[in-house]
Write a structure and sequence with these properties.
heterodimer, A: alpha/beta, five-stranded mixed beta sheet, B: alpha+beta, 7 helices, elongated
Chain lengths: 566, 155
């Protein structure tokens, strides 16, 4: 252990002990994007007013998202001599009640609590990680989400943060770090699932001294918000992961690439970067070792394609986010023409624990070929929409039913839309597929960045496909014509289907375009036939009803007849 | 003349707020739009000068990213999510209600100049869909009625 780290850890542990003992009382309010959508900022305000009005000494921390987004606003209260109690669906009114009843009156209101985090117990309240949503989950990358204040680096350090980096800098050669990550089996989480250590090896072998570590937080997939969720909830795990990657590959600088409209994510990330510099965890001679590394936030404008790795580099250079031709690959010629490595936010977020607990430990979770956990966003028609971290090897049904509570009673799952708008659909027959990169790919779906949108019997796959096609067309960057023109044709045909103007043979015409679309410069055009391919695979009769009979069996498409009207 | 001078000053101040090593055409556009809420016509040549790019390059980048605007927005902004995740939870109905309330079919600013609205493909609060952003505050679990109320409240 470096001396510098030892000192940081001592200070952090003391702070964490005070927090855990509730001295002073702590109120941790979930105010990541999902928390704010549920009124998190108003709840913070209500707590601050109520503690002032009652003359109570307490600190309100703004924390990220534990993942139970449907239960936001989530609030943890830590009072002296009591366990850390989690309350769900807290409103401004409930905040006042909790202050009065618990902090003034001494009644922790177990009837309002959903779980106890950590040690201690309260009659009638389960341990938080024993509730149905959290029981199947294994938290690695999300270990601190919702548990720590992301604006306080000490809370991260007290929970094992920067121990992985410290281990690298005090005990390991860069090549050994890559070996450890290779042993873990960690695969990239941006969609392609390429082994992270292999990618790092390419960069390590490239000539320096200027080399870049790029973190892709341009998460444009509707239905996926786990990258932003991680950065908002625990930015240091991403920064530490990038710094470890920088050490392993002898890189000089890192960029976190975020869309400029996500102001809170940017602010949280920038605050974390500033703190890391202040504590000697970024900059020159990190933790006193002979290693320099910088990280900055790079902003992009609104453009879905800018999440493509070469388009991302164009955007950081300030240009239109249009993909480059490959080869050369980024590990040789990347950002500003220098060797670069790009990974997704989630990929970096795993790295600190892989180094702290070891590659073998990580490889012990998950399946043979998909090691570790997956971070998924379960949204749409499920009872408990949320962001979850589950071990690979569960089935999609287990994830949807056990974690997210399934669809509403008496209803059935009709479709799953996974892997973003280019990912297409899975039908109900595939619900028992194992959560595993290769298993899912074999069924024609991708895990992608982890968005799983569940549609029940009220959803119309043709209308959904039209929405995906609309998105894909609107977001085509326009550089290469197969994508620019092809996505437009596909959209027009889907719109015709939902409006009653489709012609027989339209499906074949769409499929005939797939060969041309495959010649697109990047995945955006290449994959844009997935909505029709997957709709045809699972919902052929519903497609035909729209095209031939001009009927929408789900009764969603307003221009078409409902089944009962015939 | 004073008005122009002050616009120029504000553009330059916005440009100089950037960290020197990280300045690009795109970053400059972002900082200027942050300052004004849109890109004033005078700012384009100033950005070109500042970044050593051509005016064409600057326009090229500004017109590529969909959130850059060339006219001032109204005092209130409304963004309604239409992504598939919000869609299965009723975003289409929310969108129709918002359009009817604003009396507009296409994105833009209302006749009274009060509200500028646009479609958003994802506001990253999918668990609370349908979602809308009103004056940069995010609101979730909307119904057509509650969305219309939000707009009535800010107007």
């Amino acid at each position: 252990m470096t001396e510098a780290y030892q000192q940081l850890k001592q200070r952090a542990d003391a702070g964490w002990e005070a927090l855990s003992n509730g001295s002073p009382i702590r109120i941790m309010v979930g105010a990541a994007t999902c928390g704010r959508a549920a009124g998190g900022l108003q709840v913070i305000d209500a707590f601050e007013k109520a503690i002032a009005a009652n003359g109570i000494e307490a600190r309100v921390h703004r924390v990220g998202c534990i993942g139970l987004c449907y239960a936001e606003v989530l609030v943890d209260i830590i009072a002296p001599g009591q366990p850390r109690i989690t309350y769900a669906n807290v409103t401004s009114v409930l905040a006042e009640t909790l202050v009065k009843d618990y902090l003034v009156g001494g009644n922790p209101r177990p009837d309002l609590a959903i779980g106890i985090r950590g040690e201690g117990s309260l009659d009638g309240v389960p341990a938080l990680f024993d509730i149905p949503d959290l029981k199947p989950q294994v938290r690695v990358a999300m270990r601190n989400c919702g548990a720590i204040d992301p604006s306080d680096i000490d809370q991260y350090i007290a929970n094992g943060g920067y121990a992985g980096l410290d281990r690298c800098l005090s005990d390991m050669q860069p090549a050994e770090v890559i070996e450890e990550v290779l042993k873990s089996g960690l695969r990239g989480r941006g969609g392609a699932a390429f082994p992270a250590a292999m990618k790092w090896r390419f960069l390590a072998g490239a000539p320096g001294p200027t080399k870049y570590i790029l973190c892709n937080a341009e998460e444009g997939d509707p239905g996926a918000y786990n990258d932003k969720g991680l950065l908002e909830s625990d930015p240091h795990t991403v920064l530490e992961g990038m710094t470890i990657a920088g050490y392993a590959t002898a890189a000089s600088k890192g960029y976190v690439f975020i869309r400029c409209v996500h102001r809170d994510v940017i602010k949280t990330t920038q605050t974390a970067i500033d703190q890391a510099y202040k504590e000697g965890l970024l900059g020159k001679n990190i933790l006193g070792a002979d290693f320099n590394f910088d990280i900055a936030v790079a902003l992009t404008g609104e453009s879905y394609v800018s999440g493509e790795e070469t388009a991302l580099m164009e955007a950081i250079e300030g240009k239109r986010a249009m993909p480059r031709s490959r080869p050369p690959f980024p590990a040789q010629v990347g950002l500003w023409g220098k060797p670069s490595n790009i990974n997704n936010v989630k990929t970096y977020a795993y790295v600190p624990e892989v180094l702290r607990q070891g590659g073998d430990w990580y490889a012990g979770i998950g399946t043979e070929r998909s090691k570790g956990t997956a971070i998924v966003c379960l949204t749409g028609n499920v009872a408990r929409p949320q962001m979850a971290e589950v071990p690979f090897g569960l089935t999609l049904r287990q994830v949807i039913d056990d974690v997210a509570g399934g669809v509403s009673p008496g209803n059935e799952i009709k479709l799953l839309q996974t892997g973003g708008p280019l990912g297409g659909f899975l039908g109900p027959s595939e619900i028992d597929v194992t959560l595993d990169f290769d298993e899912m790919a074999g069924r024609g779906a991708i895990l992608g960045s982890g968005g799983i949108i569940v549609g029940d019997e009220t959803s119309c796959p043709v209308e959904m496909a039209a929405i995906l096609a609309d998105f894909n067309n609107e977001e085509s960057c326009g550089k290469c014509f197969p994508c620019r023109i092809g996505t437009k044709h596909i959209l027009e045909m889907f719109e015709a289907m939902t409006e009653g103007g489709a012609k027989e043979g339209d499906v074949d015409r769409m499929l005939a375009m797939s060969d041309t679309l495959l010649t697109s410069l990047c995945g955006h055009g290449q994959l844009s036939v997935n909505p029709i391919k997957s709709a045809l695979k699972y919902f052929e009769s519903e497609l035909n009803a729209h095209i031939i009979d001009k009927v929408c069996p789900a009764g969603r498409c307003a221009a078409l007849a409902k089944p009962s009207q015939r | 003349m004073t008005a122009t001078a002050s616009t120029t000053d504000r553009v330059n101040q916005a440009l100089n707020r950037q960290v020197k090593e990280e300045v690009t055409v795109l970053s400059s556009l972002i900082y200027v739009q942050d300052e004004f809420g849109f890109l004033p016509p005078e700012s384009i040549p100033l950005i070109a000068d500042y970044t050593d790019a051509s005016v064409n390059d600057v326009f090229g980048v500004a017109t590529f990213y969909t959130h850059f605007r060339f006219t001032p927005p109204g005092p209130h902004t409304v963004e309604v999510c239409w992504g598939p995740s919000c869609h299965v939870r009723g975003a289409a109905e929310v969108m129709s209600a918002v359009k009817a309330e604003l009396g507009m079919e296409e994105e833009g600013t209302t006749e009274d100049g009060q509200v500028t609205w646009k479609r958003s493909s994802c506001a990253a609060a999918c668990a609370h869909g349908p979602v809308a952003m009103v004056d940069e505050m995010i609101y979730g679990d909307l119904t057509p009625e509650s969305a219309v109320q939000l707009i009535k409240d800010v107007r």
